[in-house]
Amino acid sequence: MRVVFSYYWTSGLLSMLGRSSEKPYAPLNLVADFAGGGLMCALGIVLALLERSKSGQGQIIDASMARNLPLSHQCHDDDDDDDDDDDDDDDDDDDDDDDDDEEEEEEEEEEEEDEEEEEEEEEEEDQTSINFFKTLSNSSSSVGSDHTGQPSLPTCINEPWPSMTLSPESVITEVEGAAYVGSFMWKSRSLGLWNRPRGENMLDSGAPFYDTYRTSDGKHVAVGAIEPQFYDQLIKGLGLDSSSLPPQMSTSDWPELRRTFTRVLAQKTQAEWSKIFDGTDACVTPVLPLDEARSHPHNRERGSFLVDAQGEVSPRPAPVLSRTPARPCLSRDPVIGEHTRSVLEEYGFEPAHIEQLLSAGVVECNEAKARL
């Protein structure tokens, strides 16, 4: 728990989280512990098992949280497939009994009635899902706040249902997935970690020893000293006398303790505090911007970031498998329309037809220019 901030600042992500002119703040434990740690480790295990099914060999999974933090989330549309009943009976014999015909007609009518009932049930289920999601989109949440400081949901959730491209089934899956990722918060309510209002708990900026602070040069440091032994190192590094401070876990004294930490940490630069706490277990670390994260000694040694042919920096693919690591693509990204002609040729278009499409403005072709 105490080192979550360390994962954030090492990856450079913590410097990007928060409002303009306000200090950075991490989104609970969702990115580092759960996504960058548990989820990526589980993915590595699955990938290694899949590869083992072909090679029969095992390998080591390197699931560094700091490397795994830069994640992207992609929504997928689920298309509903309609099942058509094509089991029509062909009447080839003109001598069938009338009774047989009547029985067949009765069976067909019963089948049609059953199908209509199933369709009505499916429509009711879909409408229930839509109503459930609309209820969620109109409710408040602790995931964020708007410019007034009031709780707010992500923009995609606040969109009205007709403008969304997700089906009810995929939306409910997203809701359940998000809720499951936050299982720790649900369980923590009974542990005293999340039983207070938003912003007053141990890990949501409520505790002064688990937060970020501005330094004298306008930069920030992250503090994550929850455990007593680490908290003692923090107090020592700040040059404070523990006997003159309130107890660490006295929540009623947290505002006073925060004011003390804010005042002291604002007296030195980020570099000065980094030097003071370097090599200690105080869990005080500098909040690095993205351009500095790449050059950090830890990331340089592990090769956590790559530079492509265009000079753009991006995280190395994660997790890393020792024997069959992912091979990142470092080639230049194509410009829009660069491969229009080759794609059309692959689909069988004749050169003359392609020229007609280009002349009419139906398609565009932008050949890449060499950079001299």
From TrEMBL:
Q: Which UniProt keywords apply?
A: Isomerase, Membrane, Transmembrane, Transmembrane helix
Question: Record's GO cellular component, any one?
Answer: mitochondrion
Ranges of Acidic residues compositional bias?
77-127
GO BP annotation list:
bile acid metabolic process
Q: Which domain of life is it from?
A: Eukaryota
Q: Where is this region: Disordered?
A: 71-129
> Which family is this sequence assigned to?
Belongs to the CoA-transferase III family.
Q: What is this protein called?
A: Alpha-methylacyl-CoA racemase
Whose protein is this, by species? Hemibagrus guttatus
